[in-house]
Write a structure and sequence with these properties.
The protein is of the alpha+beta class. The protein is 47% helix and 8% strand.
């Protein structure tokens, strides 16, 4: 099947919905894409995907992509001809599964990129490959990051309340030395929480939320449960004095 002609002056861009990849993948403006997909796609294609994703963020129903204007915005020169840098970047999006083209000048673009395949990981530079192996190892053992999660969620919720989107929240959490895995989870959680507040729905099976409501607090330990390490112990209570029956009236 011949490759579609993507050198038309304008393309209709829509979101490519894929429940599996949307659940497991990473947003185009995430750190995972910037650190790992960049080596596979190249800078022009990566920036194009990020640019399109930002447009879909504000125009979720789709939009018209003007190739000349887009090429100029990304510093790719002219978009004229099938071998222009922008058209080559569009074809690379399709080649690596980030987008798919239809004959009617429509381009469906993913809002999440899948994790790299083993073949793609093997193509990474050695230092980047080592970073990727560490990233995936931490994801598999997310319990080691539990200590950061509460702090990350508090910061992410504050940013979400200020109107920041998921990628921006994730990047800001990085600057606070939050691990990328925790940063992404917290950013997604905060975004879902804000959506649930607006709709009166729930997040992670919690009770309905209203505007200004705080997320559910973890249950308190039972009174006879041993104190956590580092927690302050309550002061002991002195026992009440015993009553002695002397067998008669007091003198």
């Amino acid at each position: 099947m011949p490759a579609p002609d993507l050198s038309t002056p304008q393309l209709t861009v829509v979101a490519w919905t894929d429940p599996v990849i949307d659940a497991l993948g990473y947003p185009p403006r995430s750190t995972y894409t910037e650190r790992f997909w960049l080596s596979i796609l190249g800078p022009s294609t990566t920036w194009l995907i990020r640019h399109v994703d930002a447009r879909l963020e504000s125009e979720p129903e789709g939009f018209t992509l003007d190739l000349e204007a887009t090429a100029a915005a990304l510093g790719l020169g002219s978009a004229r001809g099938r071998h222009s840098p922008l058209v080559r970047a569009l074809h690379r999006c399709c080649q690596f599964g980030a987008a798919r083209a239809a004959p009617d000048d429509t381009l469906a673009v993913r809002r999440h990129l899948p994790p790299l395949t083993r073949h793609q990981i093997d193509r990474l530079p050695p230092t980047v490959r080592a970073d990727h192996d560490e990233w995936r190892a931490v994801e598999r053992d997310a319990g080691t990051l539990h200590g950061q999660q509460r702090r990350a969620r508090r910061v992410a919720l504050a940013l979400a309340e200020l109107g920041e989107d998921i990628p921006t929240t994730e990047q800001r959490l990085h600057r606070f030395k939050i691990h990328p895995v925790v940063a992404r989870e917290a950013a997604v959680w905060a975004h879902r929480l804000m959506v649930a507040r607006e709709s009166g729905g729930t997040v992670d099976g919690s009770e309905p939320l209203t505007a200004g409501a705080a997320p559910s607090q973890p249950p308190r330990p039972a009174p006879d449960a041993p104190p956590r390490i580092g927690a302050s112990r309550p002061a002991p209570t002195a026992p009440a004095p015993a009553t002695v029956d002397l067998g008669g009236d007091a003198a």
